[in-house]
Amino acid sequence: MTAGHTHTSDDGADVAARAERRWTMLSVAIIVVLSGAAAFAGIHQATMPQARVETADPTTLHIQGEFVETNLGSAVEPDGSVTVRAIGQRYSFTPQCILVPADTPITLRATSSDVVHGLLIQGTNVNTMLIPGYVSVLTARFQKPGDHLMPCQEFCSIGHEGMWARVKVIDKAAFNDMASQQRRLSCVE
Amino acid sequence: MLSSKRLILAHFWLAFAVFGIALLLGAWQMFVRSPLHTWISNPEWYYRSLTAHGTVMGYVFPTLVAMGFGYSISEAALRQPLVGRRWAWVGFWLIAVGAVTAMIPVSMGLASVLYTFYPPLIGNPFYYIGVVLVVVGSWIWVGLMSVNLYVWKRDHPGEPVPLAMFANVAGSYLWGWTAVGAALELLFQILPAALGFTSTIDAGLSRVFFSWTLHAIVYFWLMPTYIAYYTIFPRAIGGKLYSDPMARIAFILFLVVSMPIGIHHAFADPQVGAGFKFIHSAFTALVALPTLLTVFTICASAELAARLRGGRGPFGWVRALPWGNPIMLATALSFVMLGFGGAGGLINMSYQLDTTIHNTQWITGHFHLIFGGAIVIMYFAIAYDLWPHLTGRALESLGLIRLQLWLWFIGMMVTTFPWHYVGILGMPRRMAYFDYSHPGLAAEAFSVSMSAVGGFILVASGVLFLTVLIRGQWAPLTEPGEYRFSTAVHPPVSLPAALNGHALWVCLMIGLTVTNYGFPIMQLLVRPETSVPAVYVGSQQ
User: Fold this and answer.
1) Are the C-beta atoms of residues B363 and B424 closer than 8 Å to each other?
2) Residue B540: per-residue pLDDT
3) Contact residues, B window 345-374, toward A, CB-based 8 Å cutoff
4) Residue A139 near residue A116 (C-beta atoms within 8 A)
5) Sorting pLDDT into bands at 50, 70 and 90, what band is A189?
6) Which of A71, B259, B309, B478 is most buried as measured by Cβ atoms within 10 A of its Cβ?
7) Annotated active-site positions of B, please?
8) Rounded to an integer, what is the distance from CA B53 to the centroid of its chain?
9) Partners of A88 in the beta sheet?
10) Which of B270, B430, B523 sits opposite A136 (nearest CB)?
11) What is the model's pTM?
């Protein structure tokens, strides 16, 4: 074997190692950019999971606390925002239809009274789990009036496939008009 | 040098038999929830089927493949007969008995809790006991892989551990540790409730325990596939592995960073705060790294083989690859599915984008592409590659094999692409049927029908696969020669201890898990009044 031949093979190994290194750097850069973008958007509250963990006893939901039936549905807060409270139970949501105004900050507070349910508003990125014992909190804003389906997205035993609710987004003025007459709003007239 | 042929064949045959049954169930589920079929009279049948499909495909099938392949690797790569073969049979029978124990209550409708358990839903205790037996059986394999490597190292001091065995043991440690999460949930939370010792359960805490297992288990399923990429594919196409150390780094990265990421499954859960969700999201991003490294190393290995076969030009070499070779075909199709599935995975892992598709049919599409597609097609390739060495008979149906692989690929595409689409529309998963006459759902009808057609194509492929293997059992005898793994272009002469052993990485894996899970779990443990009444499946009927 000549010295030249050994030289060539070393060169080959160098080229290979360089190509490998470049690819590794590129891979690391992709991951750093992705995580950085997620961190940036998170800090700017583009979408942020709830920071605090809150609990609610599912066995007493119906008799005390914020999730008693008369307190469910949409309510206008002093600052003009809207809070929606809902519970999931096998196999329906209460309220079965949620009425909200368009173009208004909305806080959704929901929990489950029995097993794990999920809540997903089609056509939006409102999507959360309802775990018995814990309160799920989510903020949202609906751009324009319209109807959305709100299925239970998590298996909650037989009957799961029948668990669909609705969200009705109406004009802000009309909503405020109704809110001045009733304390809790739902689609049910 | 495969001396435990009966043991290995038993693992593969049981794996593929239960796979065939679960595949039929999956296709049936696609059919009954599509507009091609009227609503089923009893939706509970659907959830029974779903529980069986998920339990078999998630726990039994990949575990048996990893074990059977693991025993082959131990014997063929280390060139030593398996140490502890009697224990290996004990593990096998524990899994067989466990699978039957679990499936009886499921088929009776007493444990329709799906394979992710869903506390506070509580099914028949025998379902969980069966799952525990499967896990215990697989832990015997974890121990045996460790012992076999130890025995080899004792006899070969200072020599580089063969890559296949290095990766195999990394996979077994990953599984041994990741199974602890679900084991804690089953032993301390679910089984006491199922057996009637307790009547309440902290559903939030058990979801965190399960998430510990739930994501890293996917990397356990993935390990045999990646081992096949690195140690079967380059040899099968007449080439060499581009880089041995890079392969080791990829497996080490899987071992360390795939563990502490499961809370990304709980992005939408109320029981974990935002901070740990972000940490797990960032770690999930990191786990893309070993896959990106693998894409490079395997494509480079393919290029090497192609150039040795006379391929030229920046891309012209692709034509010179042996496309008719089943391992070549399977790996290429696997990579395509891994690409689409991986891109979807980056969306799921994203802290923000996940909310759009969380728990929709998109997720089903994603993991069927990764697991059912990219991973399982390589399980087929592993079986095709090993079969002549296990049976001493040649697999002659090459055309049938190619057809089978193509059908699997096409079937997966036709099944999962429509799922991704309806997922974006907001179609929830795990539902027995949909009212397609509802104007809000009518748009999804066509896509769901397509997925059902994809399911039928997959069944056809599965039937072909079993046909090829069964025909292989009766083919003429042959002398397949010694079973070999790929060699690297520059085979390692000596390796640093960090790339030749697992101790450091196992410590890191455990350390990272403790930091990433310790605090959320402690917080949930000390938080009062989070246990809720257990809901017993079957009692409502």
Assistant:
1) no
2) 46
3) 346, 350-352, 355-356, 358-360
4) no
5) low
6) B259
7) 215, 219, 366-368, 429-430
8) 14
9) A93, A112
10) B270
11) 0.94
Q: How many other CB atoms sit within 10 Å of the CB of residue B496?
A: 10
CB pairs under 8 A between A and B: 205
**Residues of chain B found within 8 Å of residue A127, distances taken between Cβ atoms:** 268, 355-356, 358-359
B267 touches chain A (CB under 8 A): yes
CB atoms within 10 A of CB B272: 24
Contacts of B292 in chain A (CB under 8 A): 23, 27, 30
Rounded to an integer, the average pLDDT of B469-493 is 91
Write down the pLDDT at residue B461: 97
Confirm or reject contact between B141 and chain A (CB < 8 A).
no
Gap between the Cα atoms of B450 and B419, Å rounded: 9
Q: What is the rounded CA–CA span in Å between residue B427 and residue B445?
A: 11
Contact B288 A47 (CB under 8 A): no
Minimum-distance CB partner of A20 among B278, B296, B535: B296
What single string gives the DSSP state of each residue in B292-351? HHHHHHHHHHHHHHHHHTT--STTGGGGGS-TTSHHHHHHHHHHHHHHHHHHHHHHHHST
β-strand partners of A94:
A87
Q: Residues with Cβ < 8 Å from B539, sequence gap 6 or more?
A: none
Q: Note the ipTM here.
A: 0.89
Q: Tens digit of pLDDT for each residue in A83-109?
A: 999 999 999 999 999 999 999 999 999
pLDDT in tens, B346-378: 899 888 888 899 999 999 999 999 999 999 999
Residue where the block lists tokens 């199922």 = B194
Residue (of B317, B301, B256) closest to B485 by Cα position: B301
For chain A, the first-to-last Cα distance in angstroms comes to: 94
3-state class of B480 per DSSP? Answer: coil
Q: Is A107 on the interface with B (CB under 8 A)?
A: no
- Per the document, the length of chain B is 541
What is the C-alpha to C-alpha distance for residues B541 and B534, in angstroms, rounded to an integer? 16
B539 lies within 8 A of chain A by CB? no
Q: Which residue of A has its CA nearest to B423?
A: A122
